Amino acid sequence: MGSTGRADRFYADQVLDRLNARMREFAAEQEMFFLATADRHGECDNTFRAGPVGFLHVLDDRTLAYPEYRGNGVHASLGNIEENPHVGLLMVDFLRHRIGLHVNGRARIVADEEMRRTRHGLGTDPVPGRRSLVWVEVTVEEAYIHCAKHIPHLQKVPAGGAGRPWGTDDAKRKGGDFFGAAADAPRRGPFLPPPRADAATWRAEAARLLARAERHGGDADTRSPAFSGWFSRTSAV
Predict the structure, then answer these.
(1) What is the C-alpha separation between 16 and 140, in angstroms, rounded?
(2) What sign for the dihedral angle of Cα 217, 221, 225, 229?
(3) What are the pLDDT digits (tens) for 1-23?
(4) Is this prediction's pTM over 0.85?
Protein backbone atom coordinates (compact mmCIF):
# COMPACT_ATOMS: atom_id res chain seq x y z
CA MET A 1 0.00 0.00 0.00
CA GLY A 2 3.03 2.25 -0.13
CA SER A 3 2.90 3.13 3.56
CA THR A 4 5.99 1.25 4.78
CA GLY A 5 8.01 4.40 5.34
CA ARG A 6 5.26 6.10 7.34
CA ALA A 7 4.69 2.93 9.37
CA ASP A 8 8.40 2.63 10.17
CA ARG A 9 8.49 6.24 11.34
CA PHE A 10 5.40 5.68 13.49
CA TYR A 11 6.93 2.65 15.18
CA ALA A 12 10.22 4.47 15.68
CA ASP A 13 8.65 7.62 17.14
CA GLN A 14 5.36 6.64 18.78
CA VAL A 15 5.31 3.00 19.92
CA LEU A 16 6.66 2.42 23.43
CA ASP A 17 7.14 -0.78 25.41
CA ARG A 18 5.82 0.87 28.57
CA LEU A 19 3.52 3.68 29.67
CA ASN A 20 5.22 7.03 29.96
CA ALA A 21 4.03 9.62 32.49
CA ARG A 22 1.45 11.19 30.16
CA MET A 23 0.06 7.77 29.17
CA ARG A 24 -0.27 6.76 32.81
CA GLU A 25 -2.12 9.97 33.60
CA PHE A 26 -4.42 9.47 30.61
CA ALA A 27 -5.24 5.86 31.52
CA ALA A 28 -6.03 6.77 35.12
CA GLU A 29 -8.59 9.36 33.93
CA GLN A 30 -10.68 6.96 31.87
CA GLU A 31 -14.19 5.74 32.67
CA MET A 32 -14.26 3.20 29.85
CA PHE A 33 -12.20 1.26 27.35
CA PHE A 34 -12.66 -1.33 24.61
CA LEU A 35 -11.12 -4.77 25.09
CA ALA A 36 -10.07 -7.18 22.32
CA THR A 37 -9.36 -10.84 23.06
CA ALA A 38 -9.11 -14.09 21.10
CA ASP A 39 -9.29 -17.75 21.99
CA ARG A 40 -6.64 -20.36 21.27
CA HIS A 41 -7.86 -20.67 17.68
CA GLY A 42 -7.68 -16.93 16.99
CA GLU A 43 -11.46 -16.44 17.10
CA CYS A 44 -11.83 -12.81 18.20
CA ASP A 45 -14.11 -10.96 20.57
CA ASN A 46 -14.38 -7.24 21.27
CA THR A 47 -16.15 -5.82 24.29
CA PHE A 48 -16.58 -2.75 26.44
CA ARG A 49 -15.54 -2.11 30.03
CA ALA A 50 -16.63 0.84 32.15
CA GLY A 51 -16.63 2.07 35.72
CA PRO A 52 -15.90 5.12 37.84
CA VAL A 53 -12.80 7.19 37.08
CA GLY A 54 -9.83 5.14 38.24
CA PHE A 55 -11.43 1.71 37.78
CA LEU A 56 -8.60 1.03 35.33
CA HIS A 57 -5.71 0.98 37.77
CA VAL A 58 -2.23 2.04 36.67
CA LEU A 59 -0.03 -0.09 38.92
CA ASP A 60 3.26 0.99 37.35
CA ASP A 61 4.69 1.90 33.95
CA ARG A 62 4.32 -1.69 32.71
CA THR A 63 1.17 -2.87 34.46
CA LEU A 64 -2.55 -2.10 34.30
CA ALA A 65 -5.34 -3.88 36.16
CA TYR A 66 -9.10 -3.69 36.07
CA PRO A 67 -11.88 -5.48 37.98
CA GLU A 68 -14.29 -7.84 36.28
CA TYR A 69 -17.82 -7.06 37.44
CA ARG A 70 -20.82 -9.35 37.15
CA GLY A 71 -22.28 -9.38 33.65
CA ASN A 72 -24.34 -11.68 31.47
CA GLY A 73 -22.64 -14.77 32.85
CA VAL A 74 -20.90 -15.70 29.59
CA HIS A 75 -17.44 -14.44 30.65
CA ALA A 76 -16.25 -14.56 27.05
CA SER A 77 -13.25 -12.31 27.67
CA LEU A 78 -12.08 -14.26 30.72
CA GLY A 79 -12.48 -17.51 28.82
CA ASN A 80 -10.40 -16.18 25.95
CA ILE A 81 -7.69 -14.92 28.32
CA GLU A 82 -7.55 -18.38 29.89
CA GLU A 83 -6.72 -19.79 26.44
CA ASN A 84 -4.77 -16.89 24.94
CA PRO A 85 -3.27 -14.14 27.13
CA HIS A 86 -2.77 -11.60 24.33
CA VAL A 87 -5.13 -8.63 24.71
CA GLY A 88 -5.62 -5.20 23.19
CA LEU A 89 -7.06 -2.23 25.09
CA LEU A 90 -8.29 0.92 23.36
CA MET A 91 -9.02 3.97 25.51
CA VAL A 92 -10.70 6.90 23.79
CA ASP A 93 -11.27 10.31 25.35
CA PHE A 94 -14.33 11.65 23.51
CA LEU A 95 -14.89 14.53 25.95
CA ARG A 96 -11.74 16.61 26.40
CA HIS A 97 -8.70 15.73 24.33
CA ARG A 98 -10.36 13.68 21.56
CA ILE A 99 -7.43 11.31 21.50
CA GLY A 100 -6.94 7.60 22.08
CA LEU A 101 -4.39 5.25 23.58
CA HIS A 102 -3.74 1.68 22.46
CA VAL A 103 -2.23 -0.79 24.91
CA ASN A 104 -1.32 -4.29 23.76
CA GLY A 105 -0.02 -6.84 26.22
CA ARG A 106 -0.40 -10.10 28.07
CA ALA A 107 -3.16 -10.61 30.61
CA ARG A 108 -3.62 -12.90 33.57
CA ILE A 109 -6.63 -13.48 35.80
CA VAL A 110 -6.09 -12.74 39.48
CA ALA A 111 -8.46 -13.58 42.33
CA ASP A 112 -9.82 -10.54 44.18
CA GLU A 113 -8.26 -11.66 47.46
CA GLU A 114 -4.80 -12.06 45.90
CA MET A 115 -4.97 -8.69 44.15
CA ARG A 116 -5.91 -6.89 47.36
CA ARG A 117 -3.21 -8.75 49.27
CA THR A 118 -0.44 -7.77 46.86
CA ARG A 119 -1.71 -4.38 45.65
CA HIS A 120 -2.71 -2.11 48.51
CA GLY A 121 -5.12 0.81 48.27
CA LEU A 122 -7.51 -0.63 45.67
CA GLY A 123 -10.59 0.15 47.73
CA THR A 124 -13.99 -1.55 47.62
CA ASP A 125 -16.84 -0.03 45.62
CA PRO A 126 -20.13 -0.04 47.58
CA VAL A 127 -22.32 -0.33 44.46
CA PRO A 128 -23.38 -4.01 44.06
CA GLY A 129 -22.86 -4.01 40.30
CA ARG A 130 -19.30 -2.76 40.73
CA ARG A 131 -17.98 -5.34 43.16
CA SER A 132 -15.03 -7.12 41.62
CA LEU A 133 -15.33 -10.85 41.06
CA VAL A 134 -11.78 -11.26 39.78
CA TRP A 135 -9.16 -8.90 38.32
CA VAL A 136 -7.38 -8.86 35.00
CA GLU A 137 -3.78 -7.72 35.21
CA VAL A 138 -2.19 -6.62 31.93
CA THR A 139 1.56 -6.48 31.34
CA VAL A 140 2.20 -3.77 28.75
CA GLU A 141 4.09 -4.75 25.61
CA GLU A 142 3.09 -1.88 23.28
CA ALA A 143 1.56 1.53 23.95
CA TYR A 144 0.81 4.07 21.25
CA ILE A 145 -1.50 6.90 20.24
CA HIS A 146 -4.79 6.67 18.37
CA CYS A 147 -4.96 9.96 16.50
CA ALA A 148 -7.78 12.49 16.88
CA LYS A 149 -8.56 12.64 13.17
CA HIS A 150 -11.91 10.80 13.25
CA ILE A 151 -12.77 10.85 16.97
CA PRO A 152 -16.03 12.75 17.54
CA HIS A 153 -16.27 15.38 20.25
CA LEU A 154 -19.00 14.34 22.70
CA GLN A 155 -20.53 15.95 25.76
CA LYS A 156 -21.31 14.17 28.98
CA VAL A 157 -24.94 14.35 30.10
CA PRO A 158 -25.61 14.35 33.87
CA ALA A 159 -27.24 11.15 35.04
CA GLY A 160 -30.95 11.57 35.66
CA GLY A 161 -33.07 9.82 38.26
CA ALA A 162 -31.31 6.81 39.75
CA GLY A 163 -28.49 6.98 37.21
CA ARG A 164 -26.97 3.89 35.66
CA PRO A 165 -28.60 0.60 36.70
CA TRP A 166 -25.43 -1.00 38.10
CA GLY A 167 -25.96 -4.63 38.98
CA THR A 168 -29.59 -4.80 37.91
CA ASP A 169 -31.13 -8.07 36.76
CA ASP A 170 -34.11 -6.27 35.24
CA ALA A 171 -33.98 -7.19 31.55
CA LYS A 172 -35.72 -3.99 30.43
CA ARG A 173 -33.35 -1.70 32.35
CA LYS A 174 -30.38 -3.57 30.88
CA GLY A 175 -31.62 -2.87 27.35
CA GLY A 176 -34.10 -5.66 26.84
CA ASP A 177 -34.35 -7.00 23.30
CA PHE A 178 -33.19 -3.68 21.80
CA PHE A 179 -32.06 -5.21 18.49
CA GLY A 180 -35.04 -7.55 18.13
CA ALA A 181 -32.81 -10.63 18.17
CA ALA A 182 -35.41 -12.84 19.85
CA ALA A 183 -37.65 -12.74 16.78
CA ASP A 184 -34.76 -13.73 14.50
CA ALA A 185 -33.23 -16.35 16.81
CA PRO A 186 -35.22 -19.31 15.41
CA ARG A 187 -33.64 -18.71 11.99
CA ARG A 188 -30.08 -19.26 13.22
CA GLY A 189 -30.61 -22.92 14.10
CA PRO A 190 -31.16 -24.48 17.52
CA PHE A 191 -29.04 -23.44 20.47
CA LEU A 192 -26.80 -26.33 21.51
CA PRO A 193 -25.40 -25.92 25.02
CA PRO A 194 -21.95 -27.43 25.46
CA PRO A 195 -21.72 -30.65 27.50
CA ARG A 196 -20.75 -28.74 30.65
CA ALA A 197 -23.72 -26.37 30.45
CA ASP A 198 -25.73 -27.88 33.32
CA ALA A 199 -25.73 -25.61 36.36
CA ALA A 200 -23.73 -27.91 38.64
CA THR A 201 -20.95 -28.33 36.09
CA TRP A 202 -20.86 -24.58 35.35
CA ARG A 203 -20.41 -23.90 39.06
CA ALA A 204 -17.65 -26.48 39.30
CA GLU A 205 -15.88 -25.02 36.27
CA ALA A 206 -16.12 -21.49 37.69
CA ALA A 207 -14.70 -22.70 41.01
CA ARG A 208 -11.84 -24.43 39.15
CA LEU A 209 -10.95 -21.26 37.24
CA LEU A 210 -11.00 -19.12 40.37
CA ALA A 211 -8.85 -21.64 42.24
CA ARG A 212 -6.32 -21.67 39.38
CA ALA A 213 -6.30 -17.88 39.34
CA GLU A 214 -5.46 -17.90 43.05
CA ARG A 215 -2.63 -20.40 42.54
CA HIS A 216 -0.85 -19.05 39.50
CA GLY A 217 -2.70 -16.25 37.76
CA GLY A 218 -4.66 -18.19 35.19
CA ASP A 219 -2.23 -19.97 32.84
CA ALA A 220 -3.99 -21.57 29.88
CA ASP A 221 -5.23 -25.11 30.43
CA THR A 222 -4.49 -26.85 27.14
CA ARG A 223 -6.28 -29.97 28.30
CA SER A 224 -9.70 -28.34 27.95
CA PRO A 225 -11.70 -29.47 24.90
CA ALA A 226 -11.72 -27.13 21.92
CA PHE A 227 -14.77 -24.88 21.68
CA SER A 228 -16.79 -25.73 18.56
CA GLY A 229 -19.55 -23.14 18.66
CA TRP A 230 -22.84 -22.53 20.41
CA PHE A 231 -25.25 -23.11 17.55
CA SER A 232 -26.00 -25.87 15.08
CA ARG A 233 -24.87 -25.07 11.53
CA THR A 234 -26.65 -28.03 9.94
CA SER A 235 -30.26 -27.48 10.99
CA ALA A 236 -32.68 -26.31 8.34
CA VAL A 237 -33.82 -22.69 8.61
Answers:
(1) 9
(2) positive
(3) 888 998 898 989 999 999 999 99
(4) no
